[in-house]
Amino acid sequence: MTKEKWEKFCPQCGKITDDLIDSLCRECFMGTIQLIEPDAMKVRVSMCRKCGAYFRGGERTSIEDAVVHIVSREIRRRYRDRLESCRVEVNQIVRDSGRTREIVTVTVRAEIRGVTVEQTGEIEVDIKTGTCNRCSRIAGGYYAAIVQIRAQDRYPADEELATAVEIAQASLSGEEFVTKQQLLKEGLDIYVSSMECGRRISRAIVKRLGGNFTESRRLYG
Ligand SMILES: [Zn+2]
Ligand SMILES: [Zn+2]
Fold first, then answer.
1. Which of 36, 55, 172, 178 is 20–30 Å from 86 (CA)?
2. What is the end-to-end Cα distance of the chain in Å, rounded?
3. Ligand nearest 21 Cα, by number?
4. Pair (89, 182) in one structural domain
5. Domain co-membership, 118 together with 60
6. pLDDT-derived band of residue 20, with 50, 70 and 90 as boundaries?
7. Do 102 and 70 belong to one domain?
């Protein structure tokens, strides 16, 4: 048996092996990987004190989603094309008193250069409280359209109006809201946050109660 003249070895620990990754042995290579870097993974969200919703930038989010987003973005930025896969899991969220900070325990499982590494660590989430756009608009009485419920040659029945209100509430999506409902002797005015949801509500009411709807463009200030 002849011994090879040039044996491959790990320059860090001296181990002789052919299995070198980025010129290090598997163990030393794994030792260089730091998936969770709390200082580079600071998460900042704001929380609406009225509705309790969380936001990152202008987007509605959750603590979990914000953490997963920031942690995986930083790992992708750091390992780029050496990263084959990455999965971030939130294990535990501990809220400190005052609700201005949360400590989130995450486990990251990543495959880098064919080596699977799993690490667990803590990420800090700073929470700024305020009032979200939707809640401040509601508080300010904002509306962009009025859905006017009327009957032809008669007054609408109470059941019809109740159904209309029910339909209006069920038609809302995302950030939309009903500002107020004004009962009049000839019917009901439903003030809503956008032209689009006004249209959607009108269509749904006509579909259920019959009749038709017309749209008038007006600017409300
Ligand atoms: Zn080594
Ligand atoms: Zn809110």
1. 55
2. 92
3. 1
4. no
5. yes
6. very high
7. yes
The ligand whose atoms approach the alpha carbon of 13 most closely is 1
Q: How far is the CA of 114 from the centre of ligand 1 (A)?
A: 17
Residues in a beta bridge with 115: 112
Report, as an integer, the average pLDDT of 90-119. Answer: 91
Ligand 1 centre distance from Cα of residue 76 (Å)? 25
Q: What percentage of the chain reaches a pLDDT higher than 70? A: 94
122 and 200 in a single domain? The answer is no
Q: Which ligand is nearest to the CA of 29?
A: 1
Lowest mean pLDDT among 4-13, 83-92, 131-140, 210-219: 210-219
Which ligand sits nearest to residue 46's alpha carbon?
2
Q: How far lies 22's CA from each of 19, 78, 82, 156, in Å?
A: 10, 15, 10, 77
**113-162 pLDDT tens trace:** 999 999 999 999 999 999 998 999 999 999 999 999 998 889 999 999 99
Q: What share of the chain is helix, strand, coil (3-state, %, to 5)?
A: 30, 35, 35
Q: Which domain holds residue 101?
A: 20-133
The CATH number for 166's domain is: 3.30.70
> Is 13 within a domain?
no
Going by C-alpha positions, the residue among 134, 147, 143, 138 that lies closest to residue 193 is: 143
Q: Using one digit for the tens of pLDDT, what is the confidence trace for 169-221? A: 999 998 899 999 999 999 999 999 999 999 999 999 999 988 887 877 554 43
* Cα 48 to ligand 2 centroid, rounded to whole Å: 5
In a domain, 52, yes or no: yes
Residue 32 covered by a domain: yes
CA–CA distance, 221 with 219 (Å, rounded to integer): 6
Cα(11) to centroid(ligand 1), Å: 7
